[in-house]
Design goal:
6 helices, 73% helix
Length: 193
């Protein structure tokens, strides 16, 4: 093995260690922080996923240079195919992370608005039958009164206590597991040959 091949092998292995490990950790921990509704950490994990996904392309490129056109070997072509599938799944994970961030921000804004409205309920109540400007007020709507004074939640907003971004969280968890399995299969094929 020549010194240039050794350098390519070192770069290939180095990129694999220092990009795939943090990438897998970031994608696999995202569902936990979505469940906790920690938008700041989910944004950080999304940014980490994007950066390391592009960095992991170095693993692929250095592997291509190291292969020197010998793509007829089964383990090499299978590894490259699995790597491309893993990268495609990573972009799906990144998309779901962005979607979950949006949903978490909407839920946080809705919860903040409900908190402000709840705080406003303790404000001074005008005298019975009169509005705040002194004119006669019409009572609550009959439908709202029949429902115990509750109003319908607007479409598209999540309830304050409900599960936010459950679909995205599930997809991220599933895809992250598949991606980690792909990395392990590639590792076994690289070491086994």
């Amino acid at each position: 093995m020549s010194s240039s091949d050794r350098l390519l092998l070192i770069l290939h292995i180095g990129f694999a260690i220092f990009t795939l490990g943090p990438l897998t950790a970031a994608t696999m921990s995202t569902p936990r922080y979505i469940r906790r509704r920690d938008v700041a950490i989910v944004k950080y994990l999304n940014r980490t996923t994007m950066i390391y996904a592009f960095g992991s392309l170095g693993v692929f490129l250095f592997g291509l240079f190291l292969a020197k056109g010998q793509f007829a070997r089964f383990w090499l072509s299978a590894s490259m195919t699995l790597f491309v599938v893993g990268i495609a799944l990573l972009f799906l994970v990144e998309r779901d992370q962005r979607k979950a961030i949006r949903l978490l921000e909407v839920a946080a804004a809705a919860q903040g608005a409900a908190t402000v409205q709840g705080a406003g309920a303790g404000a001074a109540v005008p005298e019975a039958g009169r509005g705040p400007d002194g004119e006669t007020a019409t009572g609550p709507e009959p439908e709202a009164e029949a429902q115990g004074g509750k109003k319908d939640v607007k479409a598209g907003t999540a309830p304050a206590d409900g599960d936010v971004a459950a679909v995205e969280r599930g997809r991220i968890a599933a895809f992250s597991g598949v991606i980690a399995l792909i990395w392990l299969v590639i590792l076994v094929m690289m070491v086994w040959h």
